[in-house]
Amino acid sequence: MRRRGGKGVIELAIDFETANERRDSACAVGVAEVFRPDAPIFRRLIRPEPARFSPFCVAVHGIRPEHVAGEPDFAGIWPDLSVRLEGATLLAHNASFDAGVLTACLLAAGLPVPSLRFICTVDLARAAFPHLRSHKLNIVAHHLGLSLNHHEAGSDAAACAAIGRHVAEMQGVATVAEAAERLGVGARRPGIPVSAPLGRSAAVASLPPPTRRVDGQNFAITGTLVACSRPDAARAIGRAGGTFQAYVRQDTDWLVVGLSPGKTKLTAAQARQRRYGRPTLVDEAEFMAMLGIG
């Protein structure tokens, strides 16, 4: 039985690990209850399709193709996962990443994307512990004396839940959502409405005006964006003081990676990273956060 916080709110922490640079390549997921630390942690390995594991990602989490060969794909684990997430507010450490993975995996599987509320515990930790030199999960966990097997999805989710619980207790409130509100940390609702037709993006006609500046920064985009069309994204970049580039060039600072990204741009970006130290690859949620759109 899931414990409900104040006002009947269910709060869970979620963490994904991915096999490669694509957000739809989830290979592990962990879910932990925020206010019931003794409850079993939901852990599942996932077989991404295709099962391509980058050396970088393997070095981070240690999951290899042979570990997931007999595991279900995302559609196979979704019935068990979705019943746990239903009606919950989700905590994630760098919520734009985990929300982006969830959205991308659902779209790739042809499943509707529920409108879930996410609270980023990186933002929460920055507000609650401004003196820390970094707010990475392992640094915050060490500060709070939490045990952590970093990049094991279940352990990461449990640490994320503990951070949220600790901050709520610091603020003297019954839920992490209330603590976030007190600290001025906004909630995010990534993804597309559950009523959107399968296989189609619920793109809006236009984006809200950017609230942050990216003056002098150059952006390229590869793949399909969920929240808007590419022309809308280009206009938003211009309004924020940046420049949209149709191709990855030597002076490209950021490559926004959407669904089904093009191999040509990814290869060009990786080659320029090695030579020039840029561009930096970001997903759609991170891009929107940079522009202050959400």
How would you describe this structure to a colleague?
The protein is of the alpha/beta class. The chain has two domains: 6-183, Nucleotidyltransferase, domain 5 (2-Layer Sandwich), CATH 3.30.420.10; 218-291, Rossmann fold (3-Layer(aba) Sandwich), CATH 3.40.50. It is built from eleven helices and nine strands. The chain has helices spanning 55-61, 65-68, 74-85, 95-108, 121-128, 137-143, 153-171, 176-183, 230-239, 263-276, 284-291; strands spanning 10-18, 26-33, 42-45, 88-92, 117-120, 218-222, 243-244, 254-257, 280-283. A five-stranded mixed β-sheet has the order 3-2-1-4-5, with helices on both faces. β2 and β3 (42-45) form a beta hairpin. α4 (95-108) packs across α11 (284-291), α5 crosses α7 and α7 (153-171) packs across α8 (176-183). It is globular, with a radius of gyration of 19 Å. It starts with 9 loop residues before the first strand and ends with a helix. 44% of the residues are buried.
How is this structure best summarized?
This protein is an alpha/beta fold and 294 residues long. The protein has eleven helices and nine strands.
